[in-house]
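User: hey, got a sec? need Ribosomal protein L7/L12 C-terminal domain-containing protein folded
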Amino acid sequence: MIITINNIEINKYELLHLINNGKKLSAIKLIKDKTKLSLKDCKDIVDNLEVNSNYYEGDTVLKTEVSSLKVHNRTVQRKKGNHIISSNSSNTKNYIIVFLLIGIAILLYMYNMK
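Assistant: Yep! Here you go:
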């Protein structure tokens, strides 16, 4: 039996064999390699077959192909570790350090005056 996805034929028995043997990832990879669909679309197909092996009985599955290049017009913030580096946070830290240094200098001056 054959499933046609975007005019590409895939052996349904091969997919069902992988799914029934606990190799869902292999089934997803097989669909992805042959059809170039997104991982989500491939996973949806495998999940549908896992629930009902006759889900795509005689049907043609039409999904959109994933483009190899995606361009986004948005500003990307640079990250270091798990936090975003921003210029405002360093100004606050500088003020705290200066305040602590002035406090230490005053304490040392008062200690030496005794």
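Quick note: Residues 87-112 form one domain. Let me know if you need anything else on Ribosomal protein L7/L12 C-terminal domain-containing protein.
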